[in-house]
Design a protein that fits this description.
metal ion binding; single chain; 219 residues; EC 3.5.1.19; Isochorismatase_Nicotinamidase; 22% strand; Rossmann fold; Nicotinamidase; two-stranded antiparallel ribbon
Length: 219
Amino acid sequence: MCPCARGRAGATRHCTTGDQPMTRALIVIDVQNDFCPGGALAVPDGDRIVAGINGLMDDFDAVVLTQDWHPVGHSSFASSHKGKGPYEMIDMSYGPQVLWPDHCVQGTGGAAFHADLNVDRADMIVRKGYRPAIDSYSAFFENDQKTPTGLEGYLRTRGITDLTMVGLATDFCVNFSAVDAAKLGFQVDVRMDLCRAIDLDGSLAAATSGMAAAGVRLA
């Protein structure tokens, strides 16, 4: 049986041969052009995390990318609601919903991953938000908190127990993904240095306290 390798920053990368199970996955949340400077829903300095994320990938047994993938006229777009503007709140059947600028529309350049992201290292790409009537922040569930994306099953069948999350944006898709993962029983770390936030009306502080309360480790 081969010994485990010591990865960057002292992290142990577990062997995946013989009787040694896979345990650790890097979940890269929505590092897409529309969330980077110049995009339709740009997160400040969203592109500054790409090199660091690429540098982490070899430290993990699996790498999963998530991708916002909205149809034209998605219900979360402000343009789909007469008289409403971006960042206003409305009540949907599943609860409160922020209305966003049109972003990450299927097949557009804005929905594509950042050109420098090492997409080839990914074992799986999870597309979310493609149902017209419901938004999806979390990598695990649509915003109704009932409809699964399938990511949990994928991780379970691969023997993954520990997740490290990075990406965009800290206070929305990273936050929802991390809290859902913790509720599902995964050990979750969020690398705050490799995330960036929108910080909409105090959303970053609320997300940080919520993740900590859910048992997410903020590194």
